[in-house]
Amino acid sequence: DTLAQLLVRAADESTPESLTAFYQALLDATFLVPERAQDKPLAHQPQYPNDFLNILGVQKKDQTFVPFFSSHQRLLEWSGHDLRVREMKLAALIDLLPAGWWLIINPGSEGEKDFSAWEID
Q1: Which residue stretches of 65-120 are H helix?
Q2: Distance between CA atoms of 121 and 18, rounded to whole angstroms?
Q3: How do residues 56-106 score in pLDDT, each as one tens digit?
Q4: Which of 4, 17, 30, 31 is the Cys-Cys partner for 68 at CB 3.0 to 4.6 Å?
C-alpha cells in the first residue's frame, strides 16, 4: 500500500521531501483501528480509563500501544485473523487516545512506526 511505501522511503532516505510526503499521506489517510470488543478475548489488554473507550490497546511492558493499519492485509498479517475494526482518520484517533498511550502503525511489518505519547502531544 502507498502509505507503507512512503514510510519505508522516508525511513531510508530521511529527506525533507520523503518525510513531507509520508506525513501528508498519514494525515490524509483513513485507517483501520481494531476495536476493544472482539468475538474472542485478546491477550495483553491494558487498564482502560473507562468502559466506553472502544479502541484496542495492547500492553507492552510499561507502555500501552494502539495499533492501526493502512490496509486490511497489514491487519491480517499482524493479527492472523479478522478483527472488528473502525475506519478513522489519524486526527480522530488521536482525539480518543488516553494520555500516555502510544500509537503504532502497521505493527510487525517493514512499514511499522511508533508514535510516542510525547510525539502525539
Answers
A1: 72-79, 90-96, 117-120
A2: 23
A3: 999 988 899 999 999 999 999 999 989 999 999 999 999 999 999 999 999
A4: 31
What is the rounded CA–CA span in Å between residue 91 and residue 106? 17
Nine-digit cell at 112? 511499522
Q: Which residue type is seen at 49?
A: P
Q: List Cβ neighbours of 117 (8 Å cut-off, separation of 6 or more).
A: 99, 100, 101, 102
Burial of 28: CB neighbours in 10 Å, binned 0-12, 13-18, 19+ = exposed
